[in-house]
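Q: Sequence in, structure out?
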Amino acid sequence: MLATDLHDLPVDLLERAIGDWSIKSPFMPKAFDLVQLAKSYLAKAHPQQREVTTDWVDVARRRNDRMNADPEARRGVRWVANSTGVNLELDPTYRTDMDRFMGKLHDGTATARDVDRAPEVWRKIAEERGYLRRFDDGAFVIRERRCENVGL
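A: Exactly. Output:
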């Protein structure tokens, strides 16, 4: 296990890290500790100049395009650019099928057919929210609103 973790490190850096570790600690080092110590020597010896992407809008657009092309990707999120990079945020414009169903019930535009086609879980949630009523036989019907202010 240790050999596979350390196989890509230069031998001279690894020997230096082992020597320094043995001086400062009486305990056996973990592979992670040796890797970090060796990489710290490498960073000091050869300062790396990373290419910094400044066009975060383009990066966000490419990631969103890649996510939209994947049929199994989550649809309720999107990449958004800001001054320090890109972040994954909830997409406020996205509405799930259940959100659309609840919206129809709220607006009063839902039909009995919509209710029958909705999954059982959605109907139970709509019942808890006061949009539907369930009878003893398990059938759901749309509740009539008595007061617009209460939302029932």
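The beta strands are 77-82, 85-90, 132-134, 140-142.
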